[in-house]
Design goal:
The structure holds three protein chains of three kinds. By secondary structure, chain A is of the alpha/beta class. Chain A has six helices and eight strands; from the N terminus they run αββββαβααβαββα. Classes of the chains: A alpha/beta, B alpha+beta, C mainly alpha.
């Protein structure tokens, strides 16, 4: 009980100290523009998806059912919505052994880099002095070129989502915290990143990071909304329909 | 408080909310200027950021891009009987305590046990352990590798541990094996070589 | 389900009949080739699992050891029959917790923490049999076909008796005997089916003892930490599953039945196969900070499979890590015993050297360290060990 009280206290302090809880934000690397995608192939990596529940203590517990379903829905929805972007997308080819493991490591690296961008550059509350109000310049390292070599793709699209649904205990905590200060506490974590990487240089040329994503990823309507949010502001010269919000 | 590495960058946001960012307080460590870290003097070549949250009672941690991408820790003067990192759960996961009578090669094992406990690792390997220097003192230099289950990103580290007048001094750097370790290790080694305790 | 009832009846009668050869009395439930996806829904389901399996396959946390994997697959096949195990893929996960899980499309994950805590093929077989039984029951009950239900969609089966450091919640200090957490109706069916697998396999039934050892390991840690021990054989006021204790007794009764203990437990083969990769299984225990529990597990292996120089060295390293003055003396004794075997691992001389130096037996220590360097000139720590010799 003491632990929960302290957590509530910490959360309230945090909320009162940083009024702007994370929202969606996108950035483009200085010097990059949508024109550079014209005539280039974009390799679409398998999306990284994690879905689970939060226990009362806030620890994430994976739910294999939800994860598998969400991954499938995300993949299908991405295919649909990417068609409107006017870019030549190619799917990540099947790979095996060390090749496959390397791709998996790069996907993990993207998720980690995107998370750092979100926490340490984009959103107030925890920004690093070396990143705050500085240009958007992040890298995955130039060795990533090995991934583009086989397919002839110049760019790579990474998509990563994590959803922790609040368990009952967490929802109770949410209610309590709301009662104390009249502020809604977000139960769960709903984070998503979509990023474009220059596979020759390793530079991150576009990133969309959202710490409060909408859409329940366990069903197709929710996933439609989610993917629209992820691809918002994707650098494109094609005419785009107004995205669903 | 758990080590930030336990969580992927994705949950860093949720974590930062509960860890009271108002108190986390980043401090800029400007390049080419001597920084005083708990009595130790370290000169960075480029700009770094020091976290207001300590990794251990007598430690400080710097980062350039976020701890999950590069983390440089410095511990000064840990006495006999104290742990390296802060306790994760004193009852169920107690931190090993420094014993000043251990031999130089055993410093690697003490580091491994401490690091495993702090980051809750099942997968940790010592790659190489050899004598070297930390700020001019004889030290054990350990190269290691590890992976945690949440972000599944393999990381490499270099830790230097020295015992001076019965007290333990540690400098430790770890980063993803892809790009980020190699990107900074040159500068970090210079900082470790030039550190003054 | 008729064949399950048939097996149950057969088992019931067996207790009264005279003992007969195992293979004559029992046959496995008929295998209807039920693991092929049928229909659009299920095919989609398998594709989902294929993606999940892909990420498991490519994860850095998987132990890539084809020999070990083939060995474990062989045990699975002997347990559930070669027709069933033909398409099974086993992945060994580097994780210190006792756990194994099975996906609807037949891929299995087995943690190194589980392999460290069983001591024979029959014990591992029992774990796999219980898991497979739940898996097959879910399948034949058609739960797979309803993939839109949110609570029980893809029927993952997970067996976790977790003496785990990864459960950090203050609410989860005790062992979770998840095998007992299925609904009452499933438990009995699964037990009977698992028993049928094991009875028609070449293995004796060795299941209940695994769980009692898990309890003992947890209690050893509790005692060290001066925490209250948990008694798991008597249902207490807070026990929400009063059937746990009864079920344990029931399982033990199954094992006590005539003929249930017949067969070769494969202990010596298990010992040989796991000795080859022992550091992979035990380093998390030795380099962890649950001394009493780790010592309990290592002792369990030694008592059951014998104390060879490798295991003595492992135990020595555990004591050396805790490093109290008394521990160093104890460790030195383990290493000394280990080094009597000329074929002991080089680490035995390393341990003997380091503990002897710590105790003040410098000559003994330096000689042992020299031996270590001779036997393993490319040791990871050769340079720092050399420094000790120069002092």
């Amino acid at each position: 009980m003491m632990q929960r009280f302290l957590q509530a206290l910490a959360l309230i302090l945090a909320i009162s100290a940083s009024p702007a809880i994370a929202q969606e934000k996108g950035a483009v690397r200085p010097g990059f523009s949508a024109e550079q995608l014209v005539g280039q192939k974009v390799l679409v990596f398998r999306p990284t998806v994690w879905v689970g529940e939060q226990s009362t203590a806030g620890m994430p517990e994976p739910n294999a059912d939800w994860t598998a379903q969400s991954r499938d829905l995300l993949d299908a929805e991405l295919r649909k919505q990417r068609q409107g972007l006017g870019v030549e997308f190619i799917d990540e080819p099947d790979s095996y052994g060390d090749d496959a493991k390397l791709v998996a490591q790069y996907r993990s690296l993207f998720t980690t880099v995107a998370g750092s961008v979100m926490v340490y550059q984009f959103f107030p509350g925890n920004r690093l002095p070396t990143r705050k109000n500085k240009p958007f310049e992040w890298s995955m390292g130039s060795e990533i070129s090995r991934l583009g070599d086989r397919t002839g793709a110049r760019y790579g699209l990474f998509v990563s989502t994590e959803d922790q649904y609040g368990s009952t205990g967490r929802k109770v905590f949410q209610f309590l915290a709301a009662g104390l200060v009249g502020v809604g506490v977000q139960s769960g974590v709903h984070t998503g990143y979509a990023g474009l990487v220059d596979l020759k240089t390793g530079e991150l040329v576009w990133l969309n990071a959202d710490g409060q994503m909408g859409g329940d990823v366990r069903n197709s309507e929710g996933m439609q909304k989610r993917v629209a949010q992820l691809l918002e502001d994707f650098p494109t010269i094609a005419k785009r329909p107004v995205s669903a919000k | 408080m758990r080590s930030p590495l336990y969580y992927s960058g994705l949950t860093a946001l949720a974590l930062s909310l509960v860890s009271t960012p108002a108190l986390a307080g980043w401090k800029l460590i400007p390049n080419q200027q001597i920084a005083t870290v708990d009595g130790a003097k370290i000169t960075p070549i480029t700009d770094w950021n020091q976290s207001g949250t300590r990794p251990g009672k007598l430690g400080r941690v710097w980062t350039k891009d976020g701890m999950s991408l590069n983390a440089f820790e410095v511990f000064s003067g840990i006495p006999h009987g104290m742990g390296l990192y802060r306790e994760v759960n004193k009852k169920t996961n107690p931190m090993p305590k420094f014993d000043k009578s251990i031999l130089l090669p055993e410093l690697a094992d003490f580091f491994e046990r401490s690091f495993r406990a702090s980051n809750r690792l099942s997968d940790f390997q010592q790659i190489k352990a050899e004598p070297g220097l930390l700020g001019g003192h004889r030290a054990l230099v350990l190269r290691y590798q590890f992976t945690n289950h949440h972000d599944e990103l393999t990381r490499i580290g270099e830790a230097r541990l020295a015992v001076v007048s019965g007290k333990l001094y540690v400098a430790n750097f770890h980063a993803p094996a892809l790009h980020y370790f190699e990107d900074r290790i040159g500068e970090v080694r210079t900082m470790m070589d030039g550190a003054k305790f | 389900m008729r064949w399950i009832t048939a097996i149950a009846t057969a088992l019931a009668f067996c207790g009264q009949a005279n003992a007969a050869s195992k293979s004559k009395e029992f046959t496995r439930p008929p295998f209807s080739g039920a693991y092929e996806p049928a229909g659009v829904d299920e095919r989609g389901l398998w594709m989902l699992m294929d993606e999940e399996e892909r990420s498991v396959r490519d994860s850095p946390t998987i132990l890539n050891d084809p020999q070990l994997r083939d060995y474990l697959t062989g045990i699975l096949c002997k347990t559930v029959g070669f027709d069933r195990c033909n398409t099974a893929r086993i992945y060994i996960v580097k994780d210190k917790s006792f756990n194994a899980s099975m996906a609807p499309n037949g891929f299995m994950r087995i943690h190194t923490g589980l392999l460290a805590r069983v001591f024979s093929e029959s014990e591992l077989s029992a774990v796999l049999a219980h898991e497979f039984a739940h898996f097959e029951l879910r399948h034949s009950l058609g739960k797979f076909r309803n993939i839109r239900r949110s609570t029980d969609v893809l029927a993952w089966v997970s067996l976790a008796g977790a003496v785990t450091n990864t459960n950090t919640s203050a609410l989860q200090n005790s062992i979770v005997l998840q095998i007992f957490s299925y609904s009452r109706e499933n438990e009995r069916d699964a037990d009977l089916l698992a028993a049928a697998y094991i009875r028609s396999s070449p293995y004796p039934m060795h299941f209940a003892q695994i769980w009692s050892r898990m309890s003992e390991e947890d209690n050893a840690n509790r005692e060290e930490r001066k925490q209250r021990k948990i008694s798991r054989f008597a249902p207490g006021p807070t026990d929400s599953h009063p059937t746990n204790a009864q079920r344990f007794v029931y399982l033990a009764k199954l094992e006590a039945e005539e003929g249930a203990q017949e067969g070769d437990d494969g202990a010596s083969e298990y010992r040989a196969q796991t000795s080859r990769i022992l550091p992979e299984l035990y380093s998390a225990l030795v380099m962890g900070n649950e001394f009493s529990g780790a010592d309990y597990v290592i002792r369990g292996r030694g008592d059951r499979l014998g104390w060879d120089s490798l295991l003595l060295t492992t135990r020595g390293d555990l004591y050396r890590q805790r490093g109290n003055p008394r521990d160093l003396v104890t460790a030195q004794a383990f290493f000394q015993k280990a080094t009597q075997d000329e074929a002991a691992p080089p680490e035995a001389w390393r341990g003997l050297g380091l503990t002897s130096l710590r105790i003040g037996e410098t000559a003994v220590g330096k000689t042992a360290l020299q031996q270590y360097l001779t036997r393993q000139p490319n040791a990871k720590d050769a340079a720092s060990i050399k420094m000790l010799l120069e002092d």
